[in-house]
Design brief:
15% strand, alpha/beta, 357 residues
Length: 357
């Protein structure tokens, strides 16, 4: 089956880049041909000095994209472009990450709800996410429009239980499958990293800058008598190592080899879990960790979440309390099998449709 995939893949963001890589890999493993739809949310224009500072990171990400994202459509600048000349495919697939969060996609939101193309095109999702607890109408898309677009999908799978509730309660969409993030569909990423050497470092990965976070990391490093290394950020923090910029592959290696991980990132948590790292989520705003909370709840490790207001001693104690990864990975194996079965079901349903024509 020829699949046109709409997802976030072009930003210099570790989670977005790696979830796109995993989605493509998972569907290609099932024998499909996947083409990324070049429908990209514009990045804010940076001043020249910032462009220069961020250039090394861009070059590393661009090298990764050129190597692994080879099948890409022509550029679509807006929804009208998609409507006037939609991608040629057997199936339109909306991929994971917060592709159903209009606060991110803004004027391009309707494109991620597939408001284009022939009605005969098979339309499905894998692990889409609203990234929030409740649906809110925006100037870009409202509830009525969203419900109409959702009803055209042949199969829908969602990543978080909160998203399942939104589909059920706000839009009366009942036949929905809960699946795991595509990154979790694979046991490891040795195909990218090779063998990873473990070290004694604490890895700090922070999406939202906060001095309180780095204070906690410094104190934790002193407690364990080990170095703290910040990854994914150009920020120079006193008492914390920084080897900016890491490529997506190097970023995985840093987490995979760490003794401990402190982060506020969903995919920081995902890779910590895959590589059995002892980690803590340091939430600056508990309302913004819906995705993380949902994942940890499912795996039975919801107690790994603290906030920036918690004493550093709580972080020491939690990192010193080993996660029962044998149990976690048994649950993850079951969830992985269920999610792979959903991907297989997409092909089964597509063949049924072809036969019934």
């Amino acid at each position: 089956m020829r699949i046109a995939l709409l997802t976030y893949f072009a930003a210099d963001n570790y989670g977005a880049t790696l979830q796109a890589y995993a989605t493509i890999k998972a569907f290609e493993r099932e024998g499909h041909k996947v083409e990324l739809v070049n429908y990209v949310i514009p990045e804010p224009e940076n001043p020249l000095f910032k462009k220069i500072l961020l250039l090394p990171k861009y070059l590393k990400f661009n090298s990764f994209r050129k190597k692994y994202f080879k099948n890409i459509t022509k550029k679509y600048n807006n929804l009208e472009d998609l409507r006037n000349d939609p991608p040629r495919a057997d199936c339109y697939l909306v991929g994971s990450d917060q592709t159903w969060n209009p606060e991110i996609s803004k004027h391009m939101a309707k494109g991620f709800f597939l408001d284009f193309g022939s009605k005969d095109i098979f339309k499905v999702t894998y692990a889409t996410s609203f990234g929030k607890e409740k649906w809110e109408d925006t100037e870009w898309i409202n509830s009525k429009e969203t419900k109409e677009l959702l009803n055209q999908f042949d199969l829908i799978s969602i990543r978080e239980t909160s998203g399942l509730n939104i589909l059920n309660d706000y839009f009366s969409i009942k036949n929905v499958t809960n699946v795991i993030d595509p990154v979790l569909l694979f046991e490891n990423y040795n195909d990218l990293t090779g063998n990873v050497k473990e070290n004694n470092k604490i890895i700090a990965y922070k999406l939202i800058n906060s001095e309180a976070f780095y204070n906690i990391c410094r104190k934790t490093g002193k407690y364990f008598s080990t170095r703290v290394q910040s990854i994914g950020s150009i920020r120079k923090i006193d008492g914390i190592d920084c080897n900016y910029p890491e490529s997506p592959t190097e970023w995985i290696k840093c987490i995979a080899g760490a003794k401990y991980v402190i982060t506020d990132s969903f995919h920081g948590a995902v890779f910590s879990i895959l590589y059995r790292r002892q980690f803590v989520i340091c939430a600056s705003d508990p309302k913004r960790i819906t995705r993380i909370k949902s994942l940890l709840d499912i795996l039975g490790i919801e107690g790994r979440i603290l906030t920036e207001n918690d004493d550093a001693e709580k972080y020491y104690k939690l990192l010193s309390t080993p996660i029962d990864y044998d149990t976690v990975h048994l649950k993850l194996k079951r969830l992985r099998e269920e999610s792979i079965n959903y991907i297989k079901q997409i092909n089964i349903e597509y063949k049924k449709r072809i036969q019934n024509k």
